[in-house]
Amino acid sequence: MHAPDAQSPVPAQRHPVLTLPSQRTLHWREALPAALSRLPPGPVDLVCADWALSGRDLLELLGELEAAGHPIRCLEAQSIDTVVSGHALGLPTRWIEPSRQAPPDQPDQDQPEEEAQPDDSLRLHRGTLRSGDHLTAQGHLLVLGDVNPGARVTAGGDVLVWGRLRGSAHAGVHGHEGARIVALQLRPLQLRIADTVARGPEERPQPGLAEQARLEAGEIVIEAADAQMPRPPLG
Fold first, then answer.
1. In a 10 Å sphere around its CB, with 0-12 CB exposed, 13-18 middle and 19+ buried, how is residue 9 labelled?
2. Per-residue pLDDT tens over the stretch 20-78
3. Which of 43, 101, 123, 202 falls 20 to 30 Å from 113 in CA-CA distance?
4. Can you tell me the distance from the alpha carbon of 161 to that of 200, in angstroms, rounded to the nearest whole number?
């Protein structure tokens, strides 16, 4: 009798990848037709590069991909705003840390202040923070859940809460005045950005409208959140 042939392991199925161009080179809407023409039929993994896509942008992109026969299996992004938008639409989403390499035309020796830059990383927390909890991040902080009264969140960069923010939040703890506090429902006991402190608004939030707090002329203002707003570099 002959021994049965050994079977080679079956490689894991890999889905095609659609990578959007950097926003510094070409708008994704202009690049999409040519990129779609090169894809085989079926689901794709979408890599959004450095694009900060709002929920409306992602819905438009999803519609064009699905119309072409390419539903999104998962989404990867360097922008926190795109990660939040992807989670809001129920997409499996992964944040990719942006490259910290200096551009070729800007050598490190021409940027002596780089060493003093605060951390630009992202800390992701899933779940509700309850009274007595205190969550901190050296860079940006993204909470997928509520921050209840009595809980505190602090970050060197932005504080983003994909839920209700009813505790206390401090963004830009190292003096970064360009930091934001963003939440689906922004009704904290206290807001602080850099060294400026304010109480949260008392009026009821408009349903379905995410809000953000930011510094303007030395005061904290609260407005509708704009995922497309460019974020200044930390520091």
1. exposed
2. 888 777 788 888 888 888 888 889 999 988 888 888 888 889 888 988 898 988 888 88
3. 123
4. 15
* Domain housing 217: 118-224
Residue 9 included in any domain? no
Which residue, among 31, 115, 18, has the nearest Cα to 76 in the 3D structure?
18
CA-only gyration radius of the chain, Å: 21
Q: Are residues 139 and 189 in the same domain?
A: yes
Helix (H) or strand (E) holding 77: strand 72-77
Nearest 5°: the CA angle 177, 183, 189 is 75
d(CA 133, CA 127): 12
Does residue 85 lie in a domain region? yes
At residue 4, what is the residue type?
P
Least confident of 86-90, 188-192, 225-229: 225-229
Instruction: Say if 101 falls within a structural domain.
Output: no
